[in-house]
Amino acid sequence: MTAEPTMDTPRVGRRLQISHHTGYQYSAPVEASFNEVRMTPISEDGQVLLSHSLMVEPYATVQTYTDYWGALVECFDVHTPHRMLQITSVSTVDIPPMKEPKEGGSWHSVHSMETQERWAEYLTNTTYVDSPDEDPSRLAIVRELRHVGSPAIAVRGAMEAVRSQIVYTPGATTVSTTAGQAWAHGRGVCQDFTHAMLSILRALQIPARYVSGYLHTEKAAMGMTVVGESHAWVEYWDQGWIAVDPTNNRSVGAAHVVVARGRDYGDLPPLKGIYAGGRSGALGVTVEITQIAN
Prior knowledge:
The protein is of the alpha+beta class. It is globular and about 60 Å long. Residues about 1-10 have low confidence and may be disordered. It has helices at about 105-110, 115-120, 135-145, 150-165, 180-185, 190-205; strands at about 15-30, 30-35, 50-55, 65, 70-80, 80-95, 165-170, 185-190, 210-215, 225-230, 230-235, 240-245, 250, 255-260, 270-275, 280, 285-290. The protein contains six helices and 17 strands. The chain has two domains: about 15-95 and about 270-290, Immunoglobulin-like (Sandwich); about 105-265, C8orf32 fold.
């Protein structure tokens, strides 16, 4: 989901009701499937989950656990033969206003042994966040940003570089596209903007992580239902976690709903599973967000 580029963000909290509908259809009846869903907004950093329900068709008993990265995972088995699996997640959540911007620290602080060891998992390359070392274009940006005055300036430079290179284009990439592939293609969606920015920040030894969630309208829209999509953005460490949205060129505020955090998309897909039966195809995704009164 995208919006007009701006650094303005909502400074007043919101209560949002989010309906997320997705699933699979199969070419032949499926005898059994096992699925995991990550669609529940977390209660953390001022965000408060008020209610949540998950509906599965065919009916299945849902169990929950918290994964290594802190996301709430809902899992279920379906043993009734079916040619379609439909999942609807409905959540009500209070979102805090945008935090006051932090001044940030020095390169010495970010590169300290304590910081590097504490957040080592957010400094490594992954399947989707590949190294810029073999990519002359990204590598040149990394080398330039190493000499700017502070990590905060480098982050801003990385976001500008990503936005200059990648044009928001739905359908141009897939969930398996890497940062390098999206960069070379020059087109992508929020997942690609996020992976590309993470690749640059980690090459600069700035701890940075992938955040998945939802994006409401920039301006408050009380009582209105907005049709949108899942969203992704970046959090980086600079004397605390700071969130930025490279797709929309903005900081993160009350329009952003956090569902999960991890190293990349692979750590927190909204829906994944295994099954026995015919070939599968996605049903598509429908997300509706309604701002309601507190």
